[in-house]
């Protein structure tokens, strides 16, 4: 709550084409919001310092490395995937990997929850290397990684 920490009241929030007049304390601020505030010169200076400190603290944080890779997997004859829909397998939730492509008989197929996998289908998955490794260990056999 900016009023408690700085003494400044937010009078209006401009969010794209929307105007939020006299927002309540529960209204969140989002990137690119523009705000109209009311307060004494000291209060407004305190708000400016608070924003600068917040930005400085964020800038000092290191972003964790997140490298997404692509791998292909073939649905083998003995695979438990055969006859199951993508919804039933729920690969994204279980592995944090995303199916970005499916080929059957070297033809790209549309990805949808009701798609039923068959022997020989090729799945193209995107995910962090560690997550793809978990998928490989628990759910499939890789053809290659890109």
UniProtKB/TrEMBL annotation:
<protein>
    <submittedName>
        <fullName>Inner membrane protein YbaL</fullName>
    </submittedName>
</protein>
<feature type="domain" description="RCK C-terminal">
    <location>
        <begin position="58"/>
        <end position="141"/>
    </location>
</feature>
<dbReference type="InterPro" id="IPR050144">
    <property type="entry name" value="AAE_transporter"/>
</dbReference>
<dbReference type="GO" id="GO:0008324">
    <property type="term" value="F:monoatomic cation transmembrane transporter activity"/>
</dbReference>
<dbReference type="GO" id="GO:0006813">
    <property type="term" value="P:potassium ion transport"/>
</dbReference>
<dbReference type="Pfam" id="PF02080">
    <property type="entry name" value="TrkA_C"/>
</dbReference>
<dbReference type="InterPro" id="IPR036721">
    <property type="entry name" value="RCK_C_sf"/>
</dbReference>
<dbReference type="InterPro" id="IPR006037">
    <property type="entry name" value="RCK_C"/>
</dbReference>
<feature type="domain" description="RCK C-terminal">
    <location>
        <begin position="1"/>
        <end position="53"/>
    </location>
</feature>
